[in-house]
Design a protein that fits this description.
The complex is a heterodimer of chains A (249) and B (145). The radius of gyration of chain A is 18 Å and the shape is globular. Chain A has helices at 16-28, 44-53, 65-75, 81-84, 100-104, 110-119, and strands spanning 2-6, 34-37, 58-63, 89-94, 122-130, 133-135, 138-142, 147-151, 154-158, 162-167, 188-194, 200-205, 207-211, 217-219, 223-225, 229-241. In chain A, strand 8 (147-151) and strand 9 (154-158) form a beta hairpin. Chain A is of the alpha+beta class. With 145 residues, chain B is an alpha/beta fold. Helices cover 19% and strands 44% of the residues of chain B. In chain B, strands 2, 4, 6, 8, 9, 11, 12, 14 and 15 form a nine-stranded parallel beta sheet that branches. The longest helix of chain B is centred in the C-terminal third of the chain and has 28 residues, at 117-144. The radius of gyration of chain B is 21 Å and the shape is elongated. Classes of the chains: A alpha+beta (249), B alpha/beta (145).
Chain lengths: 249, 145
């Protein structure tokens, strides 16, 4: 059974035509299912978990990176861990911005998304943890004044300003820089880019801590988290329906 | 004509790359290839290969399977297989490896041990034979007496 989770921002008039096109396309492809609108729902996690308990096998986010982040955090909850392994798969029909996650999963736009859901190409992706939050794509923070503690005995500092990315699903632009990056290797790729050309740093780590007194970490383009942030593998996986033209193998 | 820095052609897929403006402090243990273009203080171990760029500074004892050094290392260097020192390499410490290649201009300030497994075995066997011969001669002398 398919359950389509419509994010609350889609209640605006400007998205109505797009949603109509999506619904017609899904009907044509025989992918009808239940629609759950998050507008006016206070307990978003509870609503999504409820659908899973009722027997939903495919949860499709209709919205942007934030929509997907809400679904991942609902699913990664300890009460639902039994369903994570084989029974459940998720995907996204990208509407609005930002939609970096969908793009790097090979789901470029909403019309291709419907065909991708029909094709049902599934990849198992690690769920990563940053303090109490779960994410699948990446975390970002400014390089300046940021301290990274790799373990008890080792830390690193940067002298230049730039950006730090904590990567699970690699971005297309960084494919050549970190060719071995994989979203199913139980590792996080720590990538530091400074303003100088060619001055890139990357590590593959299972856990580490980031500290910055001023700036916050942005997870999956949707959630800001205050320092210190402990990154680790959540020891959970999720089945994702992905496109052929994705940023990883 | 001075030779150029040996480029890390085999390190494109390095697991760890420490960029020029990065300082690592502490004991760093890796499993894959490591490229250092910045600085590291503490200790450095990897089960794979190490490349140290010409502007890199490592203040640590280093252990790797193979290494290609073009920067400065203040510490001992222990390499299982081949150690390559480029023209801009400066090692202030002892070296231990199976094979070494040193370009003109490299600086080594310490002891250098080149240990080959096959060479060692031959030497050991020859020493054993000599010891046995000496024992036989002693036994013969005591019998005569």
């Amino acid at each position: 059974m398919h359950v389509y989770i419509y994010d609350d921002f889609l209640s605006k008039n400007k998205y109505q035509k797009t949603l109509n096109k999506i619904e017609i396309r899904l009907t044509d492809l025989g992918l009808n299912g239940k629609i759950v609108r998050l507008a006016n729902i206070k307990d978003v996690e509870g609503a999504i978990q409820n659908e899973i308990r009722k027997g939903a096998k495919n949860i499709i986010a209709v919205g942007n990176d934030n929509t997907l982040s809400k679904i991942v955090n609902s699913i990664a909850d300890d009460n639902l861990s039994y369903f994570l392994k084989e029974n459940l798969s998720i995907s996204i029909i990208p509407v609005g911005e930002p939609n970096d996650i969908a793009y790097n999963l090979g789901i470029k736009n909403y019309s291709k998304a419907c065909n991708i859901i029909l094709a049902r190409r599934i990849k198992t992706i690690d769920i990563m943890q940053a303090n109490d939050f779960y994410f699948i794509y990446q975390g970002k923070i400014n390089n300046k004044n940021t301290n990274i503690q790799i373990d008890e005995n080792c830390y690193l500092q940067s002298e230049e300003s730039g950006e730090i990315r904590v990567i699970n699903i690699i971005n297309y632009r960084l494919q050549e820089t970190i060719p071995k990056s994989s979203p199913s290797d139980n590792l996080l790729d720590l990538y530091i880019q400074t303003n100088k050309r060619g001055a890139e740093t990357h590590f593959s780590l299972s856990s580490f801590q980031i500290k910055n007194q001023k700036d916050k970490v942005l997870l999956d383009n949707s959630q800001y988290i205050s320092s210190p942030v402990n990154f680790s593998n959540a020891d959970k996986k999720i089945n994702f329906i992905v496109g052929k033209d994705r940023s990883f193998d | 004509m001075f030779s150029k820095e040996t480029k890390p052609t085999n390190f494109k897929d390095a697991e760890t790359v420490i960029g020029p403006s990065i300082k690592v402090k502490g004991n760093f243990n890796g499993k894959g290839d490591i490229v250092i273009k910045g600085s590291l203080e503490g200790s450095l171990k990897t089960q794979a290969n190490l490349f140290v760029g010409d502007k890199a500074k490592v203040i640590a004892n280093v252990k790797a399977k193979e290494a290609n050094i073009n920067g400065e290392i203040q510490g001992n260097v222990e390499v299982e297989k081949t150690l390559t020192l480029g023209a801009t390499a400066k090692i202030f410490g002892d070296i231990k490896c199976e094979q070494i290649s040193v370009e003109q201009g490299a600086v080594i300030n310490g002891k250098c041990q080149i240990i080959q497994e096959t060479g060692n075995k031959k030497r050991d066997e020859e020493e054993e034979e000599e010891d046995e011969e000496e024992k036989e001669e002693e036994n013969e002398k005591t019998e005569k007496e």
